[in-house]
């Protein structure tokens, strides 16, 4: 074969390989700082933006991780504030990662960055549309969901009531309140009732956080969502909880048994883990459990060290 034809063939092959690689999951590595607060700092630095590596609509899942990962934040969280650890961690591990702010009010920033305020059913509807966008862009058949707190209700309502079970493979739940929680809110309401201001308190909560009244174990939302059991049989669930949770009370509300369900308490085997509700999402220990849940065929060691409350920062 003439030399010029050999070079031409080589160039064509290189271009083809380059094109195939350009659509694959990110090769770039991003710094991972295990601290829940880094997401808030990112939101302040880039109001309304996305964390580096997230929401790349040109990303194509590779064979090792064919499911894009969709992140669903907790009450008051958002696509940056809740996920400063998980976006770079997942991208670095070869996942296409997507996050949005669900259930926020259509108001100027910073109010627009505060998600989980609307009724959970509305947030789940927004998630349904977002997942469809992710699937259309990536060509994937299903996604995996990683949720925190209310984000697990949002994800599970989508799975169980909006047809999401056909589009979700795994749901990795950080601090899920499956059986509901009031975290002492009922006691607060009773005390305010004695002071004669409970109606004003209820009206204020309803106006600011319309989802908050749905968390009670006896709320219409929790009772209806769990009427046919907590889980959908076609989705694999992993629950990762902390015994020091101050908002999901008791923390065992997130440890409902089920077929194919994995329950993990981060303090089991690691008494120096002091992560609570927020710190759980900043913790390298919880993150390792989450990575193993997403890719159980390739488990990695789970670290144990002192894990600080509120930030999840290790030492």
Task: Describe this structure in a few short sentences.
With 315 residues, the protein is of the alpha/beta class.
Structural notes for this entry:
The chain is an alpha/beta fold. The protein contains nine helices and six strands, in the order H-H-E-H-E-H-E-H-E-H-H-H-E-E-H. It has helices at residues 3-22, 38-45, 86-92, 120-138, 150-161, 185-195, 198-208, 220-225, 284-294, and strands spanning 69-72, 97-99, 143-148, 168-174, 236-241, 261-265. The chain has a six-stranded parallel beta sheet, with helices on both faces. Helix 5 links the parallel strand 3 (143-148) and strand 4 (168-174). Helix 6 crosses helix 7. The radius of gyration is 21 Å and the shape is globular.
Share of β-strand residues: 5-15%
Low-confidence stretches: 1-22
Please identify the structural class as seen in this structure: alpha/beta
What Rg do the Cα atoms give? 21 Å
Assembly type of the chains comes to: single chain
Q: Looking at the structure, what is the overall shape? A: globular
Total number of beta strands: 6
How far apart are the first and last residues' alpha carbons, in Å?
Answer: 62 Å
List the helices and strands and how they pair.
Layout: H1 3-22, H2 38-45, E1 69-72, H3 86-92, E2 97-99, H4 120-138, E3 143-148, H5 150-161, E4 168-174, H6 185-195, H7 198-208, H8 220-225, E5 236-241, E6 261-265, H9 284-294
Parallel strand pairs: 1-2, 1-3, 3-4, 4-5, 5-6
Helix pairs in contact: 4-5, 6-7
């Amino acid at each position: 074969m003439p030399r010029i034809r050999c070079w031409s063939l080589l160039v064509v092959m290189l271009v083809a390989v380059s094109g195939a690689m350009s659509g694959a999951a990110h090769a770039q590595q991003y710094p991972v700082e295990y601290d829940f607060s880094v997401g808030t700092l990112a939101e302040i630095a880039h109001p309304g933006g996305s964390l580096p590596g997230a929401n790349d609509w040109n990303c194509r899942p590779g064979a090792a991780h064919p499911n894009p990962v969709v992140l669903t934040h907790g009450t008051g969280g958002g696509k940056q504030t809740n996920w400063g650890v998980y976006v770079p961690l997942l991208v670095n591990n070869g996942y296409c990662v997507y996050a949005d702010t669900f259930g926020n009010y259509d108001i100027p920033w910073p109010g627009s960055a505060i998600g989980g305020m609307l009724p959970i059913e509305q947030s789940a509807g927004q998630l349904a549309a977002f997942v469809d966008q992710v699937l259309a862009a990536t060509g994937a058949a299903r996604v995996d969901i990683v949720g925190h707190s209310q984000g697990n209700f949002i994800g599970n309502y989508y799975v169980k009531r909006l047809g999401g079970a056909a589009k979700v493979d795994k749901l990795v739940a950080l601090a899920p309140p499956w059986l509901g929680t009031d975290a002492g809110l009922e006691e607060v309401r009773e005390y305010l009732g004695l002071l004669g201001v409970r109606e004003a308190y209820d009206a204020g909560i309803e106006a600011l956080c319309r989802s908050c009244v749905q968390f009670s174990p006896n709320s219409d939302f929790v009772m209806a969502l769990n009427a046919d059991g907590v889980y959908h049989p076609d989705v694999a669930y992993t629950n990762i909880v902390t015994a020091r949770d101050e908002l999901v009370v008791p923390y065992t509300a997130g440890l409902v048994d089920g077929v194919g369900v994995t329950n993990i308490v981060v303090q089991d085997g690691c008494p120096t883990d002091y992560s609570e509700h927020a710190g759980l999402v900043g913790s390298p220990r919880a993150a390792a459990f989450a990575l193993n849940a997403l890719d159980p065929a390739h488990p990695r060691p789970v670290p144990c060290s002192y894990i600080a409350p509120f930030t999840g920062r290790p030492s």
